[in-house]
Amino acid sequence: MRDVEDGARVILLPGAALADADDATLARALIARDPRAPRVLWQRFAPMVFRMLRRTLGSDHDLDDLAQEVFLCVFEKVRALREPKALKAFVISVTSLTMRHELRRRWVRRWVRLSGKTDAAELEVVTPDTDAREALARFYKILDRVNATDRAAFVLRFMEGLELTEVAAALKLSLATTKRRLARVWARVMLLVERDPVLAHYGPKLVQEKPPEDRS
Amino acid sequence: MRRETGNQGDGTGMTHVNDSHRTMTELVGAARAAFGDGLSGQEQAGLVRFEQAVARRTLRSTSRAWVFGFGLCAAGATAAAVLMVNRPDSTLTFDVVNGSVSDGGYVRAKASGGTELRFSDGSSLALEPGTSTRVTDIDAHGSRVLLESGRAHVNVTHRPAAKWVVDAGPYSVHVVGTEFDVRWSGSEEVLDVQMQRGTVIVRGPLARGGLTVEGGQHLVANVKDGEIFLDATPGALPAAREESPEPTFAVAPEVAAATPPAAAGPAPHAARSRAVAVRGMPSVAPAPVAADMNWSTLIKQGDFHGVLADAEQRGLARTLETASAADLNLLADAARYVRRGDVARRTLLAERERFPGSASAREAAFFLGGLAEDDPGVTSAKAAVEWYERYMKDLPHGNYAAQALGRQMILVHKLQGAGAARPIATQYLERFPKGPYADAARKLLQD
Predict the structure, then answer these.
(1) By residue range, what is the domain housing residue A63?
(2) Mutant choice from A1, A5, A9 vs B, greatest count of B C-beta within 10 A
(3) Which DSSP state fits B136?
(4) Contact call for residues B407 and B378 (beta carbons, < 8 A)
(5) Which is the most buried residue in A79, A103, B122, B362, by most CB within 10 A?
(6) CA distance A166 to A172
């Protein structure tokens, strides 16, 4: 029984020590099934997970369910984490796998015409700039034409700004394969952007160019 | 890990930035800006879902029961069959009706009322407006709910092995299958449990061993004052809530004017005490009797039976004649708590007779009222009213004034009807607007 000064008692809230602990400590707490750990895990990584999901899939109400999948998977699989301090990379990896699975699911649904909704349509709520909104809608329609792994790689590298090695680790690809995929997706997206009549007016004249990673 | 500058200028050897790259950079930058780190309220509330799911999965992982069955062949007993039966528990779920979940995961009742937590086993918590709660744990057998502040009407469906706990401040109310109201005020540090049916066990300050509260009983624990009141007449408050215009039972005028409480004397049978005040007792857990322990020590250890056994070993009549006022007080407390109403009544009357004018003797009137309430019949009820009146006359600002006046109001309502009880209700609300009987008083005045 824990008494507190004001007569109120809070249960299962994370203590200051765990909330402020580093990722390795949190990972060890998750492995030990510390009841405070799930909350700290969520509070620490939910902004990143939701951001990655939104940048990959657009602003969608289904993201709540996907985030649940991510965190539950992390909770279930954390025992397999060899290096506790790599918890963040582990969360990114799980999020990436979830993203790719969802992209494939959506692709199948579009293919069999079970869903008339496009991901781009969901973008209307996130930016008040009409031009940017239109451009983003078309940009995400272009991304819809890219396969799941390439799209995840594109988001992780170019939107999330991860290092090549981090992207490779998240997608469980070799570094060389990651570079090739990034070069391919960059070129393809750029080509499609160049051919889009609206996007052609959104920026300067588009010229086919290889992505930076392809030069390394 | 995260590079805010993006990829286009990351030093990979690119010597110039062409138009195509600038367009891509702008598009990627626009996407990055459109989808930032902020979380909506709905997304933040996902924490509650996550914690519930974790609780369910944690339970499932430990509840997997493997049942092995071996069957011998009748002909040669040469084969054995191993049956593995997976018996997963069906973890409860709950819905919040007409309420909101805050960022911290608390369920907050709407001001308009009607907020309810409905569990999949049929149990429910109806929250009064402004009440805030949190489901801190949930499994196949029940749930643990933190009542941060406010009042909740709890209705737990009785099931085998059901395990429900309502945490309220420093107290926890352990439930099996029952219906009750629970209120916690953090500012006043008061827990109020009004039982409708069933049984709960309240644990917390002054009752770390657990106090059993049964249907119809009313428990008020005041942490600041270090007092717990267990004070009830079955059906008293529920009857008032049911808006029954008639008293529970009527009384003939000639009977109502019968024997005064002072002449009541000891009851011939071992009546149950329904009025218990536990004052400054750190524990009610049983402890072994030690011959050299005095009653005060036994009381502090919660060994009420030990006090009675010692008194009876010495001779109860002799004890009542020779014991000090303090010891009589302790004996009366112990007897009331273990529901030895006969001993409690004799002790309290002895206290009043031997030490008239003392504070404890005057307080004894309140406890004698509670004991009288325990006896069936109109005569006893009227005797109880008179004991409470005597207490209020002797100690109008005493420790139990709110209780005594409230009980008086309830009994007068029963004996003489709402008309006779309303003046007492008005007086009660004037003196104790937040008292344990304030709701009943308001209800009386509204009828």
Answers:
(1) 16-215
(2) A9
(3) E
(4) no
(5) A103
(6) 10
Predicted-complex ipTM score = 0.75
- Residue A7 forms part of a structural domain: no
pLDDT, mean of each 10-residue run, chain A (216 residues): 34 51 86 82 90 82 84 89 86 91 81 54 53 79 87 90 89 91 90 82 46 44
B170 neighbourhood in chain A, CB within 8 Å: 1, 3-4, 7, 9
Average of pLDDT values for B303-324? 83
Is some CB atom of chain B closer than 8 A to the CB atom of A54? Answer: yes
On whether residue A92 sits in a domain, the answer given is yes
Q: Please, are residues B228 and B220 in contact by the beta-carbon 8 Å criterion?
A: yes
The C-alpha atoms of residue B444 and residue B425 are separated, in whole angstroms, by: 7
CB spacing of A72 vs B2 below 8 angstroms: no
- Given an 8 Å threshold on Cβ–Cβ distance, is A127 in contact with B37? no
Domains of chain B: 49-89 (no CATH), 90-232 (2.60.120.1440), 251-269+300-446 (1.25.40.10)
**Residue B259 pLDDT exceeds 50:** no
Taking an 8 Å cut-off on Cβ atoms, the answer to whether A71 and B14 are in contact is no
Output the pLDDT for position B67. 34
Q: Are strands B107-109 and B99-101 parallel, antiparallel or unpaired?
A: antiparallel
pLDDT at residue B285 is higher than 60: no
Look up the pTM and report it. Answer: 0.40
Alpha-carbon distance of B222 to B189, in angstroms, equals 6
Q: Is B283 exposed, middle or buried (0-12, 13-18, 19+ CB in 10 A)?
A: middle
What DSSP assignment string belongs to B145-176? EEEEEEEEEEEPPP-TT--EEEEETTEEEEES
Query: How crowded is residue A19: how many other Cβ atoms within 10 Å of its Cβ?
Result: 14
Helix ranges (H only) for B100-211 are none
- Which amino acid does the sequence have at B341? G
CB B157 within 8 A of CB B177: yes
Q: Would you say residue A103 lies in a domain?
A: yes
Report the largest interatomic distance among the alpha carbons of chain A, rounded to a whole angstrom.
69
Contacts of A21 (CB under 8 A, 6+ apart): A29, A40
- Identify which of B20, B42, B148 has the shortest CB distance to residue A8: B148
C-alpha span between A52 and B60 (Å, rounded)? 30
CB of A26 closer than 8 Å to CB of B2: no
What letter represents residue B74's amino acid? Answer: A
Surface of B (130-189) touching A: CB under 8 A: 134, 136-137, 144, 146, 148-149, 167, 169-170, 172, 184-189
pLDDT tens digits, B220-233: 887 777 777 776 54
Q: Which tokens is A58 given?
A: 């657009």
Q: How many domains does chain A divide into?
A: 1
Q: Are B331 and B307 in contact (CB under 8 A)?
A: yes
DSSP percent split of chain B into helix, strand, coil, nearest 5: 40, 20, 40
- CA A186, A192, A195 angle in degrees (round to 5)? 140
